[in-house]
Structures are given as C-alpha cells and as structure tokens.
Amino acid sequence: MSYENIIIRNENNVAVINLNRPKSLNALNSEMVAELDKAFGEIAADPEVRAVVITGEKNFAAGADITNMVELSPEEARAFAFTATFNKIADFPKPVIAAIEGFALGGGMELALCCDIRIAASGAKMGFPEINLGIFPGAGGTQRLPRLIGVSKAKRLIFTGAMVKGGPALEMGLVDTLAENPLEEAVKLAEELAGKAPIALKLAKECINSAGDVDLQTGGKIEAINWSGLFATADQREGMRAFIEKRKPVFTGK
Ligand code: DAK
User: Fold this and answer.
1) Are residues 54 and 157 in the same domain?
2) In this structure, which residue's CA is closest to atom 15 in ligand 1?
3) 28 φ/ψ angles, rounded to the nearest 5 degrees
4) Which residue's CA is minimally distant from atom 41 of ligand 1?
5) Which domain holds residue 56?
6) Are residues 16 and 137 in the same domain?
7) CATH assignment at residue 92
8) Which runs of consecutive H residues, i.e. helices, occur in the chain?
9) Number of structural domains found in the chain
10) Where would a tag sit more exposed on the chain, N or C end, judged by fewer CB atoms within 10 A?
11) Which CATH number fits the domain that encloses residue 216?
12) Which residue CA neighbors atom 6 of ligand 1 most closely?
C-alpha cells in the first residue's frame, strides 16, 4: 500500500521506515501512527523482510503532534491510539533498530524505546519534555524508560523534561551506540541480523523482553521452552551442520 506520512524502502531483506512529516519535525499524528501500524503488519507477513530500521531525515520525531492532543477529554486521551501500535513494535517478531538524528522527544523517544537497539548521532537531542506541557510520557515511557536506564535516571529525565545529546545518552544507556551516520550504521547492523536464523532471533527477543516482567524462575522456564522448541527448526539443523561441515549456514526461517 502507499503511505503519506512514512516512506518505506526494502533492500537486502531490510525494511527502512522513514518518518516523513519534516515540516513538523516528524511529530507523530494519528495518521502517521495508523500507517506505522499497517506497515508493521505488512512487514510481519513478508518473509523476505528480516529486520527493520526506523528513522527520520534530519529529525527522528519531536513527539506526538501537540495540535492533536490539546483539546482531548480524559476519555479521548485514554483512547489515544498509540499504545497498541507501540506495543506491536516492541513485541515485533523481527529485530527493529532506531536510527536517531536531530530531535527524538516525548512520543518520538517512546517510539525509539520500543525498538530493540538505538543508534544515535552525537548531536541528536533526546528527552521527555511532556512535563512542560502539563503531562508526562503516556505511550509506555514511564515503564520502558526505568527498565532501560534505571529508576532514578528515568525520574530525572521525566521530571525535568531535559534534553540530552548523544554522549550523555550513551553514558546513561538511553542509546546503545553513537555513529556519524546513524542510518548507515543501523542498516549495516540490520543487514547482519537479516542473515541470522529468524526463528532463533524472534524467540530470543521474546525471552529477553519477558526478562523485565517476570521473576528469574519464570523467565528460565520461558527460555527453556523457547530454546528447546528451536530443535524443531530446519535452521537449528542447518546452523549446527554448517559448523561441523566448516561452511557458512544458510538460514531459511523454517
Ligand atoms: N507537535 C506539533 N508540532 C510540532 C511538534 C509537536 N510535538 N514539535 C514541533 N512541531 C512543529 C512546530 O510547531 C513548528 O511548526 P510551525 O510553527 O513551523 O508550523 C515546526 O514543527 C518546527 O518547530 P519549531 O519552530 O518549534 O523548531 P525549533 O527548532 O525552534 O524547536 C523543538 C524544536 C523540538 C525544541 C520544539 O519544536 C518543541 O519543543 N517541540 C515540542 C516537543 C515536545 O514537547 N514533544 C512532546 C510532545 S507530547 C500517549 C501517546 C503519545 C503521547 C502521550 C500519550 N498515549 C497513547 C496515552 C506523547 C506525547 C508527546 O509526545
């Protein structure tokens, strides 16, 4: 399908999604989020795509579109349609990498938090300025941020609304890597991941995502079920046989 607020390019088994509302610094409006939702649905069903990069030219996203929110009633705010899409991205069965340049603020940074890995430019400006609008992050930020960087650092960022650049963001664990060209770096990594065994990646992600939510014993059980299940896949046989036969494995996702 064609999109108006995002641009998608598929190459080498990687889908690159460009947020594309440059005039408003890629502020996320409901149309853009609906398109993201559709795009992730299509990518999930496309076996050719094995990894995803989300980015925005010049800016990642300066938050949810404030003009969409200013007059919401509490009921309408409750129904604000980001959470399901963001959860879909966080639980997406293929790796998702955020390539961040410029502003990644509020809902924009919450979107980046849903990605598996964040690669940022040193000049990127990231934060949660919602407090300055009389609200706080409501698209998973109060839950994902402390899990990622720790409770007190998360409180400081959310309470102050301060923006941090790449260096401090890396130091506090808000991003994983700095790169001169985050998109190039993200695509390189995505292409590498696209060559790995897709089912093993998917199940590893499921296990790791559950680690923040369940106790160690339960997590161990989830791991054991997922790990042993891999021995029903052709890719497990292929990976191990390739090692023994001293050749490169070719994973088919079966
Ligand atoms: N919404 C709408 N328009 C925005 C925008 C935003 N978030 N950010 C920027 N723009 C627009 C500006 O209004 C301006 O438009 P024009 O005046 O040219 O028409 C244009 O983009 C360029 O921005 P500036 O002229 O302001 O550019 P500057 O370089 O001077 O400043 C800035 C850049 C990023 C510092 C500034 O634009 C700014 O402070 N923007 C707002 C950042 C912000 O507060 N973000 C958080 C928004 S609240 C939920 C789901 C989602 C959310 C919450 C709950 N649920 C599911 C429950 C999310 C909430 C948020 O993200």
Assistant:
1) yes
2) 24
3) -85, 110
4) 62
5) 6-194
6) yes
7) 3.90.226.10
8) 30-45, 66-69, 74-78, 83-90, 107-114, 141-149, 151-160, 166-172, 182-194, 198-211, 216-229, 234-244
9) 2
10) N
11) 1.10.12.10
12) 65
Q: How far is the CA of 38 from the centre of ligand 1 (A)?
A: 24
Q: Which residues are catalytic?
A: 110, 130
Q: How many angstroms is it from 181 CA to the middle of ligand 1?
A: 24
Same domain, 168 and 224: no
Sheet with 117-120, side-by-side order of all strands: 6-11, 14-19, 51-56, 96-100, 117-120, 177-178
Same domain, residue pair 102 and 202: no
Q: Which mean pLDDT values do the consecutive 10-residue runs of the chain (254 residues) have?
A: 93 98 97 97 97 98 96 90 93 98 98 98 98 97 97 98 98 98 98 98 97 95 97 98 98 96
Q: Which residues line ligand 1 (CB under 6 A)?
A: 24-25, 27, 62-67, 80, 82-83, 103, 105-107, 129-130, 133, 138-139
Residue 153 maps to a domain = yes
